[in-house]
Design goal:
Hypoxanthine phosphoribosyltransferase; 9 strands; 22% helix; 33% strand; alpha/beta; binds guanosine-5'-monophosphate; binds magnesium ion; 176 residues; 6-stranded mixed sheet; 3-stranded antiparallel sheet; Rossmann fold; glycosyltransferase activity
């Protein structure tokens, strides 16, 4: 285990098992349809890669990179990288590492609906329900977690720890 990790919450094996379950649900729910998996950079990449292996549908991958500003109760987010394709009439599955306040996904979802996507749903590896300030829920949730700062499996602190093959709680002394 990495020296900065206080506790491992989910091991690689548990995450893979969860991806299999979610992949099966998604395959059943979208049977006969084509889905665009939209990963939010950078944190969703390991989860998206694992989950997609168990989706038995025709899928394409696309990515968005957005940054939202803290502070003022504004929904403004900056698009640093937009999708490569037109989503009009398409079924979109937004893939996130973690859903916290819901600000990012609320804004991104509204943007894709505005562009004419025929459906926009969310799949998130982790859900911090207590953190929610926007009324948004993911259709597919890997694990519900308490309000702690987690790293690994894509999740970073100052861009570090994304490569850890598990989700763990970062030691307080690392960000104090
Ligand atoms: P939201 O817009 O839902 O508040 O923000 C979700 C984003 O906040 C995530 O994609 C992630 O980048 C960041 N985030 C929220 N909670 C955590 C956490 O516990 N650990 C890490 N590494 N990032 C988090
Ligand atoms: Mg993210
Ligand atoms: Mg981050």
């Amino acid at each position: 285990m990495h020296k900065d990790v206080k506790e491992v919450l989910y091991t690689q094996e548990e995450i893979i098992e969860k991806c299999k379950e979610l992949g099966q649900l998604i395959s059943d729910d979208y049977a006969g349809k084509e889905v665009i998996l939209v990963g939010l950079l950078k944190g969703s990449v390991p989860f998206l890669a694992e989950l997609s292996k168990y989706i038995e549908l025709d899928v394409t991958f696309d990515y968005m990179d957005v940054s939202s500003y803290e502070g003022v109760e504004s929904r403004t987010i900056t698009i640093k990288k937009d999708l490569d394709q037109d989503v009009k009439g398409k079924d979109i599955l937004l893939v996130e590492d973690i859903l916290d306040t819901g600000k990012t996904l609320t804004t991104v979802k509204a943007m894709l609906v505005e562009r004419g996507a025929s459906s926009v749903e969310i799949v998130t590896m982790l859900d911090k329900k207590e953190g929610r300030t926007y009324p948004i829920e993911a259709k597919y949730v890997g694990f519900e977690i308490p309000n702690a700062f987690v790293i690994g499996y894509g999740l970073d602190f100052n861009e570090k720890y994304r490569q850890l093959p598990y989700v763990g709680i970062l030691k307080e002394e690392c960000y104090m």
